[in-house]
TrEMBL record:
Belongs to the citrate synthase family. It is a multi-pass membrane protein. This is Citrate synthase. The chain crosses the membrane at residues 71-88, 95-116. GO terms for biological process: carbohydrate metabolic process; citrate metabolic process; tricarboxylic acid cycle. Keywords: Endoplasmic reticulum, Membrane, Transferase, Transmembrane, Transmembrane helix. One of its GO terms (cellular component) is endoplasmic reticulum membrane. Coiled coil: none annotated. The active site is at H425, H471, D526. One of its GO terms (molecular function) is acyltransferase activity, acyl groups converted into alkyl on transfer. The keyword Transferase applies. Its main location: endoplasmic reticulum.
Length: 591
């Protein structure tokens, strides 16, 4: 990031910031990202004088060390002592004159050192994020700041890998169309048409694939392989979502350094304009969290780079680059918006600012108000395994079809969120927890398997479903469920609700098989995720689809980037009426 500053603007003193909690009545932007030491006063003094404006505005870890008074005094003494000894021994210089001259030089070192330190740290991520924050707080300063985004190391490397991969993929796709365009992939039946296109192969999705037996494969890697190969926040920890984002975009497993750089890049992009909070605040506090979430994403849309360049005119081969920019910005911003909504609804509007030392999912948990290391690890796992699930599910398909009209990622993802909000999609994990708690309310926590069977039959005979069981594509237990079960066995084996979920795993499938109306009676990921969230204190089940939405942004945005990179056309299948189907089905009999 290169920043041009017009210093003719007046920088007004900032409010004292001493608490990580900020009252919503002002704005979450009041939560300064300054470090604890910087938060003690708007402007620090060094030996009785104020720090220069660039020191007040920011500086990262390098400058923090170089600017410390002890460091500068130590450097001056060390430099002076070495110089005195060298000149006295080698040159035989007059000691008194030498001391006076070196004293003057030492004082210059003490006072010039901060400027040197800032020179080496001027382009740091924390520096630019604080400048952005100050600009948002002070319109007079904001009007004189002209931002020009330049790719950072991580962004450049990710962008470069993607750019190198696209021509090869594009060539393979063109070859498929030219040589095998007429190859049939299967027969379309009436049952498929009237049954939600279940079993119909009709979409191209590069990021992931569901194998009926193996489950979800992210660029060919299973859940367990991702856990082993993707970088983690700690040894033997859960994979970081940033690593999966890199994998989905580039087909390559990133290094620890690449993931760390991408994490910093996402933090740099996570600046939320104040109008977004104002838009959300215009809704009733008791509006459904998904309503507030989709509204917040729509409010972010005014920042869309794709829309701006499209209106000016741009070659279609460049669509993907601006879609990529929008996608990274959106992925970076939505955890902040989602956490704001949670704190607004459930925590009296006290907002927790981002922690620059944390990764993507860890920061999300932190901003929600959870700093338990186990919860941070669980959130990393949750976001990673929920991020993508091929292109046919409601949210991914919605994002794809809206983006096929060249709607930007903000508009497309907002539409996807509205699909995710449905009871048959993103709300299932919410309904699972509610149903499990109804079991506890009626039968108690120590319910026997016999009583549990009776309750399941009671649910089914009442015309309801047992939420969390069965999957449209999978023909075995969802590997994501297994992954969460292993996490629970490791971290919370004695949790009462986890034990109940384990019993349901044994009780429900045989009953569903006995009914004979379901191809896959095994549990999916929704049967487990809510119980884990509840265990760590996130008990507000109505908010669960929002967490799902934060996770799914990684997959949907990656898919949209590749849609534009491959030049996929507008999606426009043909529809027919019942009468048309009736007439079509009569033709073979007549023949």
């Amino acid at each position: 990031m290169i920043v041009y500053i017009n210093l003719s603007s007046t920088l007004t003193p900032v409010q004292n910031y001493s608490s990580p909690m900020v009252n919503l009545q002002s704005s979450p932007m009041d939560a300064s990202p300054l470090s604890d030491s910087d938060s003690l006063a708007p402007r620090k003094r060094l030996f009785g004088r104020e720090r220069p404006i660039h020191a007040v505005l920011g500086g990262g870890k390098v400058a923090d060390v170089l600017l410390s008074r002890d460091t500068r005094i130590f450097a001056a003494i060390l430099f002076g002592s070495a110089a005195i000894w060298l000149l006295y021994k080698v040159v035989q210089y007059n000691v008194v004159t030498l001391f006076c001259q070196l004293f003057t030089a030492t004082m210059l070192v003490i006072f010039i050192w901060p400027t040197v330190a800032e020179f080496f740290n001027w382009g740091s991520v924390s520096m630019t994020s604080k400048l952005q924050w100050r600009a948002a707080q002070h319109p007079s300063l904001g009007e004189s700041l002209h931002w020009r985004q330049v790719e950072t190391t991580s962004d450049l490397e990710l962008h470069t890998q993607l750019k190198e991969l696209i021509p090869e993929k594009h060539g393979r796709l063109n070859k498929l169309k030219s040589k095998h365009g007429k190859v049939e992939l299967g027969n379309i039946t009436v049952e498929m048409v009237v049954g939600g296109m279940s079993g119909l192969t009709g979409l191209l999705c590069e990021t992931s694939l569901i194998d009926p037996e193996e489950g979800i494969l992210f660029r060919g890697l299973s859940i367990s392989e991702c856990q082993k190969l993707l970088p983690a926040a700690k040894p033997d920890g859960e994979p970081l979502p940033e690593g999966l984002l890199w994998l989905l975009l580039t087909e390559k497993v990133p290094s620890n350094e690449q993931v760390d750089s991408l994490s910093k890049e996402l933090r740099r992009r996570a600046t939320i304009p104040d109008h977004v909070y104002q838009t959300i605040n215009a809704l009733p506090v008791n509006a459904h969290p998904m309503t507030q979430f989709a509204t917040g994403v729509m409010a972010l849309q005014v920042q869309s780079e794709f829309q701006k360049v499209y209106e000016k005119g741009i070659h279609k081969s460049k669509y993907w680059e601006h879609t990529y920019e929008d996608s990274l910005n959106l992925i970076a911003q939505i955890p902040v918006v989602a956490a704001y909504i949670y704190r607004r609804i459930y925590k009296n509007g006290h907002v927790i600012p981002m922690d620059d030392s944390l990764d993507y999912a860890g920061n999300f948990a932190h901003m929600l108000g959870f700093d338990n290391p186990e919860m941070l690890e669980f959130m990393r796992l949750y976001v990673t395994i929920h991020s993508d699930h091929e292109g046919g599910n409601v949210s991914a398909h919605t994002g794809h079809i809206v983006a096929s009209a060249l709607s930007d990622p903000y508009l497309s993802f907002a539409a996807a969120l509205n699909g995710l909000a449905g009871p048959l999609h993103g709300m299932v994990n919410q309904e699972v927890l509610v149903w499990i708690k109804s079991v506890v309310d009626e039968c108690g926590e120590d319910v026997s398997k016999e009583n549990l069977e009776d309750f399941v039959w009671k649910t089914l005979n009442g015309g309801k479903i047992v939420p969390g069981f069965g999957h449209e594509v999978l023909r075995k237990t969802d590997p994501r469920y297994t992954c969460l079960r292993e996490f629970a066995l490791k971290h919370l084996p004695d949790d009462p609700l986890f034990k109940l979920v384990s019993d349901l795993y044994e009780v429900v499938p045989p009953i569903l098989l006995e009914l004979g109306k379901i191809k896959n009676p095994w549990p999916d990921i929704d049967a487990h995720s809510g119980v884990l969230l509840n265990h760590y204190g996130l008990t507000e089940a109505q908010y669960y689809p929002v967490i799902f939405g934060v996770s799914r942004a990684i997959g949907i945005c990656s898919q949209i980037v590749w849609d534009r990179a491959l030049g996929l056309p507008l999606e426009r299948p043909r529809s027919v009426t019942i009468e048309w189907l009736e007439n079509y089905c009569k033709k073979p009999a007549q023949d």
